[in-house]
Design a protein that fits this description.
Elements: E1 21-31, E2 37-39, H1 44-58, E3 70-74, E4 86-91, E5 94-99, H2 102-115, E6 129-138, E7 144-150, H3 158-170, E8 175-179, E9 181-182, E10 185-186, H4 195-198, E11 202-203, E12 207-208, E13 215-216, E14 221-222, H5 227-238, E15 243-250, H6 255-260, H7 289-305, E16 310-314, H8 321-324, H9 327-335, H10 344-358, E17 362-367, E18 378-381, H11 385-394, E19 398-400, H12 403-406, E20 410-411, E21 422-426, H13 429-433, E22 450-457, H14 465-472, H15 475-484, H16 490-506
Helix pairs in contact: 1-2, 3-5, 7-10
Length: 523
């Protein structure tokens, strides 16, 4: 924090997202070398997570003792708390964390983490710390509270993804959507088809500037994950109550796959490179049986590696020009009783969704219009909220991902000090806070189809972890607030955010200006 800036409010007044109910209590509880945890059966995971945060902050060992005053307990009778709710009581004589299930306890651990003195997040006190007296009952408003990170455009190592997950958990987000494949890179390991990462995981250079630019940086870019790395990430996230949802998109955004396997395309004799441009690539998958079988195998390996209930299969921005000019695609459309090649988009998505459903999972797809995706798909509506409500009326579950309020690759404000970003408009903190999950007037039953919302960070212009965090925070704080506690109180949020910014600063999250720290853009 700037030494000339006002002193931030204490941590107990700066919780983000805001708890459902918080009541101050007299006194404070001191963590010192006499503190012991009472770890009830079934709470071991939460206790390990708690120690992982408290030991570095306090330098204390926090061992288990049957008479420990810091208690973690499961109480299945607390059914009103659901899977993720919790109760936290802090007084002079002890701390009690209670939940109906283990995930609720993980959420309560993040609240304890936020209650630590700001300076304790970056350096141990050496003398113990105090927690404020209070009582909290906390239950999320929505079950899907997520963030997408695009690692296809700019690869990030698993070591950074672990930090990214940890920051999501701090804000009680529970979904990390990992965008693993796109035109510019294939990061998902597929044992059956090693060329997908061996060839598709590397491009010769990257465009400088927005789509249509004629400038390139001349630097190769590449990378992919191993199964072991992703397995480790999945376990790391699960220990924090975060589910990693994989996205492997079809039938568009597949240029990297076509570079590795030209036989999958509409022009199998053409030799394509991994795309070095930004924007919408005109190349899409062919529609032969061998293409369907190939991607069923890919999805089998995705589902074997990722245990998440949901699997994202893409579906957005699929140009149909290749299909309209392809005798094979025209014949396939006729064979399937479709009105023309354009309808192959929905047909292809239905085949992939059916495969996911048969495996006992739930497919997710991006909505282009809200009315053409298979009914088995959960819909992410990114173009306009109207598509979300159209999908809900059809019976889809929906996740709001409107680009005008949840796409964090847009600049934080329109000023000249902002680093280069996605052109079009800017999304400030107030806009993100205004994300609207309420159904249209007169249709209250549609609220039951809304799973929640998530932020998206596409990385055409975002090469580094520092840049990722600059764009993500504090905007993700606003999104986390609205999806956990749907109360609309902008001024209260802004007041708490001032203290939360001190917390983020202690964790090394850049929030002020990035321009001076960025590498210069090549001419």
């Amino acid at each position: 924090m700037d030494p000339l800036s006002p002193t931030p409010p204490p941590p107990d007044l700066s919780l983000v997202p805001r708890p459902s109910r918080l009541t101050p209590r007299p006194g404070r509880y001191r963590l010192d070398d006499t503190t012991r945890l009472r770890v009830a059966p079934g709470t071991e995971g939460a206790a390990d997570l708690l120690r992982g945060y408290l030991v570095p902050a306090t330098g204390l060992r926090l061992e288990h003792a049957e008479d420990g005053a810091f208690v973690l307990a499961l109480d299945p009778a607390l059914t009103e708390l659901g899977e993720e709710g919790y109760r936290l009581t802090i007084g002079p004589d002890g701390v009690l964390l209670r939940a109906a299930g283990p995930t609720g306890l993980l959420r309560s651990v993040q609240t304890i983490r936020q209650l630590l003195p700001y300076e304790g997040l970056s350096a141990p006190s050496g003398t113990g710390v105090e927690l404020p007296g209070l009582e909290i009952t906390d239950v999320p408003a929505h079950p899907w509270r997520g963030m997408l990170l695009d690692v296809a455009r700019h690869f990030q190592p698993v070591s950074y993804l672990r930090r990214f997950v940890d920051l999501l958990a701090l804000h009680k987000l529970n979904v990390f959507q990992l965008h693993l494949t796109d035109d510019q890179g294939w990061r998902m390991p597929v044992d059956a088809y090693p060329r997908l990462t061996g060839i598709g995981g590397h491009r010769s250079q990257s465009m400088v500037g927005p789509a249509g630019s004629t400038r390139f940086d001349g630097r190769p870019h590449g990378g992919s994950y191993t199964r072991a790395e992703l397995t480790d990430l999945i376990a790391y996230a699960a220990a924090r109550g975060v589910t990693v949802v994989p996205e492997v998109g079809v039938p568009g955004h597949v240029r990297s796959a076509l570079a590795a396997h030209p036989e999958l395309g509409n022009h199998p004799d053409a030799r394509l490179d991994v795309w070095t441009h930004w924007g919408v690539c005109p190349n899409v998958l062919g529609v032969g049986d061998h293409v369907l079988d190939f991607f069923r195998t890919v999805l089998d390996e995705v589902m074997d590696l990722f245990p998440s209930t949901y699997v994202h299969i893409g579906g957005d921005e699929v140009p149909t020009q290749e299909w309209e000019a392809s005798p094979a695609a025209i014949a396939r459309a006729a064979q399937e009783g479709l009105s023309g090649p354009r309808e192959l988009h929905g047909w292809f998505m239905a085949r992939m969704a059916d495969h996911v459903v048969r495996a006992g999972r739930r497919p997710i797809a991006w909505a282009e219009n809200g009315t053409t995706l298979p009914l088995s798909c959960t819909v992410m509506s990114w173009r306009t909220p109207q598509h979300a409500w159209a999908a809900a009326r059809r019976g889809h579950d929906v996740i709001h991902t409107d680009h005008r309020s949840t796409y964090f690759d847009y600049a934080r404000d329109p000023g000249p000090a902002e680093p280069p970003g996605q052109p079009g408009h800017s999304i400030d903190l107030r806009t993100v806070y205004g994300v609207d999950l309420l159904p249209p007037p007169g249709e209250p039953l549609l609220a039951g189809k809304v799973l929640g919302t998530q932020g998206q960070l596409w990385t055409e212009f975002v090469p580094t972890p520092e840049h990722i965090e600059y764009l993500t925070y504090p905007r993700l704080c606003a999104l986390a607030e609205r999806v956990w506690d749907s109360t609309d109180d902008w001024q209260d949020f802004r007041t708490r955010l001032e203290g939360h910014r001190a917390r983020l600063a202690a964790l090394g999250v850049p929030q002020d200006t990035l321009q001076a720290r960025m590498a210069p853009v090549p001419a």
